[in-house]
Amino acid sequence: MADAALDRLKADGRIVVVGASLAGLRGAETLRDKGFKGSLTMIGDEPYEPYDRPPLSKQALLGKGAAERTALPRRRELDAEWRLGVPASGLDMAAKRVKLADGEEVSYDRLLIATGVRARPWPNPAEAELDGVFVLRTRDDGAALARRLDAGPRRVLVIGAGFTGSEIASACRERGLEVTVAERGDAPLVGALGGVIGAVAAEMQRENGVDLRTGVMVTGLEGDTTGRVRAAHFSDGTSLECDVVVVSLGAQRNTEWLIGSGLGAGPRGIACDAGCRAFDIRGIVTDDIFVAGDVARSPHPLFGYQFLSLEHWGNAVSQAETAAHNMLSESTERRPHIWVPAFWSTQFGVNIKSVG
Ligand SMILES: Cc1cc2nc3c(=O)[nH]c(=O)nc-3n(C[C@H](O)[C@H](O)[C@H](O)COP(=O)(O)OP(=O)(O)OC[C@H]3O[C@@H](n4cnc5c(N)ncnc54)[C@H](O)[C@@H]3O)c2cc1C
Fold first, then answer.
1. The domain made up of 3-118+252-345 is a member of CATH 3.50.50.60
2. Which helix (H) or strand (E) element contains residue 218?
């Protein structure tokens, strides 16, 4: 982009951010930091201003801070138009317009997509609807689960022993609740951290009173006559009475709204180059649509330039900052997003930190 066009964009251009959470907010703040004075529109399907998710499986479940009180601190004034509680439902790349579910359309010169992921639901919809069956991704999920744990269930079943599932089990034990964790793999956290750390995590869970069942799948959930969950059945033929079930089976990327748009988006995320520019479905890089956070798939130099999605808090912040910088830069001034994967998890009184 020529200098004059870039100056016009900075002075009175239109930038739209879809996904008003961690990556969306930090991206928008960076745009203002970099001197963007034009109109900024933040579109978010949740009715809340950006909030932080990590506390939802930690402090919020322990009653040490309500799920409603995890608003993200602001780094600066944004001066943005907020369109909250209304999802983006489509994208017209040629006309440079985002369509909203309420029928409105918002035009852009530059678009930042940061629509993240959602919790993978329990695969049987009727069982997923049973009272007492939860997932944990949003502030509303966190508040509802915390209320149910406050009521003192007799036994909680957590399905899936990844980070979120393990943290939920930890919070249950800290509250003195009986908890069973069912994991298809050989150990908790094994997918992310491998067998050695997985074995340590298993020991930690059992030492802390978790009824950990590995190498087993939950095959069905059973409700009582009032529609409340009462039992779960396992692939080894056993059953368990439980009155709360938390389904913690990973995430699905929020890309359905882009179907038919021509953007390179699908169940694995939105493909982008190292500079956070989205690819279209022909594999040609766009120059006005950028991607950041959990929904992005970008080439990573540490992993042979494979396209990876990193569902980590720090990655969302760093990628959003890079995307925003590049949105306002000449091509020679653009930066690649090179982030060493790093995350933390707090469970059973232990802080796990992983880098690399
Ligand atoms: C319970 C929990 C605990 C976690 N703990 C840790 C941790 O300890 N350490 C760590 O590194 N990471 C942790 N994470 C992950 C971290 O929170 C994410 O990496 C981070 O939230 C990603 O930010 P994001 O903005 O890319 O996506 P999200 O936070 O998922 O935000 C995307 C937003 O876009 C909205 N959206 C989706 N579709 C549309 C649409 N069509 N129109 C408008 N808006 C839309 C979504 O509703 C959401 O508000 C945790 C996550 C959860 C859920």
1. yes
2. strand 218-223
User: Given ligand 1 and candidates 43, 168, 311, 351, which is best to mutate, with the most ligand atoms within 8 Å of its CB?
Assistant: 311
What are the tens digits of pLDDT across the range 115-135? Answer: 999 999 999 999 999 999 999
Nearest in space to 278 (alpha carbons), one of 289, 269, 294: 289
pLDDT in tens, 194-224: 889 899 999 999 999 999 999 999 999 999 9
- Give the pLDDT confidence score for residue 301 in this predicted structure: 83
Give the tens place of pLDDT for each residue, 304-347. Answer: 999 999 999 999 999 999 999 999 999 999 999 988 888 888 89
- Determine if ligand 1 sits within 6 Å of the CB of residue 56: yes
Distance from C-alpha of 153 to C-alpha of 81, rounded to nearest angstrom = 43
SS3 at position 25: helix
Written as six digits, the tokens of 186 are 């050989």
Backbone angles phi, psi at 264, to 5 degrees: -80, 70
Q: Which helix (H) or strand (E) holds 316?
A: helix 313-327
Sorting pLDDT into bands at 50, 70 and 90, what band is 2? low
* CATH 3.50.50.60 residue window(s) in the chain: 3-118+252-345, 122-249
Q: Does domain 122-249 sit in CATH 1.10.10.10?
A: no
56 burial (CB, 10 Å; 0-12 / 13-18 / 19+) is buried
Q: What is the DSSP letter of 335?
A: -
| Strands, sheet with 97-100, edge to edge from the N-terminal-most edge strand | 88-92, 97-100, 105-107
Pair type for strands 296-300 and 269-271: parallel
Distance (Å) from CA 224 to ligand 1 centroid: 34
3-state secondary structure 149-176: HHCCCCCEEEECCCHHHHHHHHHHHHCC
Closest ligand 1 atom to 118 CA: 30
CA of 351 to the centre of ligand 1 (A): 21
